[in-house]
Amino acid sequence: MQNARDTFYVTLRDRLAAVNPARTIVLRGVTRPGVLVEENELASATVPVNAFCLRWTGLSVDTQGALPLATMTCEISYATDGDSGNGGMDRGRLLSGMDAELVSAVSAAPQNVAKMNYVGAAGGSGLAPVAMGTNVFWGDAAFGAAVVNGERLERVATVVVFCYQEVGEL
Q1: Closest CA to 115 of 92, 142, 90, 136
Q2: How far is CA 143 from CA 56, 71, 170, in A?
Q3: Which H or E run contains 59?
Q4: pLDDT in tens for each of the 170 residues of the chain?
Q5: How many other C-beta atoms can be found within 10 angstroms of the C-beta atom of residue 20?
Q6: CB-based contact 132:3 (threshold 8 Å)
Q7: Neighbouring C-beta atoms of residue 131, cutoff 10 Å
Q8: Please, where are the H alpha helices in the chain?
Q9: How crowded is the C-beta side of 23, counted as CA atoms within 13 Å?
Q10: Residues with Cβ < 8 Å from 154, sequence gap 6 or more?
Q11: Are 164 and 70 in contact (CB under 8 A)?
């Protein structure tokens, strides 16, 4: 299932970067698209704002078919403090903008991609990811309520992601 999670992340990251190339974050001195996977980053007491943070929270596997079908839940949390030049008074507009970016990226056709194995491509090895034999597919995002947390406005959206577990895949 790790291959499917990696594939969904890379697809979402690339689509969000295409929708808003200006949405970036700096992590460990590197500027990159404003999307991260919680489990792949160092533990931190601060949650990045104006970025999308993916967390995998649910998993079920149906073993009745020729290949097991995994159903995974991806929580995508994001927040904004608003623009300091506007005294944070635009945080609702900025959160709505992030909502629209996420809708655009998740709902863009097609809502499936070939599952990729990124193991050899990790760490800047120069190796390309390898296409696997099945696809990763997902539904539309379901948005939770906006939550006020001090001066910050936060939201969590969930996306259900599906994949077939291939023979020999972990």
Answers
A1: 136
A2: 16, 19, 30
A3: strand 52-62
A4: 899 999 999 999 999 999 999 999 988 888 999 999 988 877 665 678 999 999 999 999 999 988 999 999 999 999 999 787 766 678 889 999 999 999 999 999 999 999 999 886 665 566 788 999 999 999 999 999 999 998 899 999 999 999 999 987 86
A5: 16
A6: yes
A7: 12
A8: 2-19, 91-107
A9: 26
A10: 77, 78, 79, 146, 147, 148
A11: yes
Give the CA count within 13 Å in the CB-facing half-sphere of 12: 30
Give the closest residue to 127 by CA, choosing from 113, 112, 115, 116: 116
Report the amino acid identity of residue 55.
R
Please choose, from the candidates 14, 79, 66, 60, the residue with its C-alpha nearest in 3D space to the C-alpha of residue 161: 60
Cα–Cα dist 113/8, whole Å: 8
Q: Is residue 112 a contact partner of residue 140, using CB atoms and an 8 Å limit? A: no
What are the distances in angstroms from CA 55 to CA 21, 41, 52, 166, 167?
22, 11, 10, 23, 26
Check residue 81 and report its DSSP letter. -
The reported pTM is 0.91
Q: Which of 71, 78, 70 lies closest to 16, judged by CA? A: 78
